[in-house]
Specification:
With 225 residues, the chain is an alpha/beta fold. It has 8 helices and 11 strands. The chain has a single domain, classed as Rossmann fold. This is GAL3A protein.
């Protein structure tokens, strides 16, 4: 039997939802690993909507669950319906939607609040000692919910201009968590908490390297499941 994995989305599109390449990479690697995947998203309004062609705010409202359904090909459920007892692991792709819709990191940084269903989902998997996979900006969810955990968002310095959001590592440390520096094609495993993280698009890297890094994260999650 393949592992049962829940994938949690935050909308559709890097600037206001889930990063599409990261979500796709996670789904491909999960499929290759023989996992049975079900997709979820919170049924809430997006914090904002961004015109991805212009890179500027759009004067409209969108729903996170409805937008996430685009990525899920319509096969998606409200995050409120997710039961950790029915799954072996949970995975969160990144994208600004994580920092805007799943929590308020984009506005409040380390002082952010986490959506109640996202928080209860993370806590349920953690309490059941089931692995949690996070990539790109989504490791901040673990840093906020599980003080003392270990995560990576890549490097803590902007090495060669490839890590423009390196200050995120400092904010994670301020939350009492350990940031572990890793390359884009690597992941970090916090064995004590069963949290697996990789930096993905937090690094300016070729798409195949980001894809490979997400692959290592998925492989480690499935090993722990």
């Amino acid at each position: 039997m393949g592992k049962r994995v829940a994938l949690v989305l935050a909308g559709c599109g890097v600037f206001d939802g889930s990063e599409i390449h990261e979500a796709s990479a996670a789904l491909v690697h999960l499929s290759r690993g023989g996992a049975e995947v079900k997709i979820f998203a919170p049924n809430i309004e997006q914090r904002d909507v961004v015109d991805h062609l212009k890179g500027s705010p759009a004067e409209e409202k969108r729903n996170v669950l409805v937008e996430s359904a685009r990525l899920a090909r319509g096969n998606i459920q409200d995050l409120a319906e997710l039961k950790a007892s029915e799954f072996d692991a949970v995975v969160f792709p990144g994208g600004f939607g994580v920092a805007k819709n799943l929590c308020s990191w984009a506005v409040d940084g380390k002082d952010c609040t986490v959506n109640e269903h996202v928080k209860s989902t993370l806590q349920a998997f953690h309490s059941a000692k089931k692995p949690i996979g996070l990539c790109c900006i989504s490791p901040v969810l673990a840093a906020k919910v599980f003080p003392g955990c270990e995560v990576t968002v890549g490097q803590d310095k902007n090495v060669d201009g490839r890590f423009p959001d390196a200050e995120t590592a400092s904010a994670i440390a301020e939350l009492g968590c350990k940031h572990v520096c890793k390359n884009v094609n690597e992941s970090h495993v916090d064995k004590a908490n069963k949290i697996v993280t990789t930096c993905a698009f937090m690094c300016k890297a070729p798409l195949h390297e980001i894809f490979d890094g997400i692959g290592t994260m998925v492989q480690e999650v499935l090993k722990l499941a």
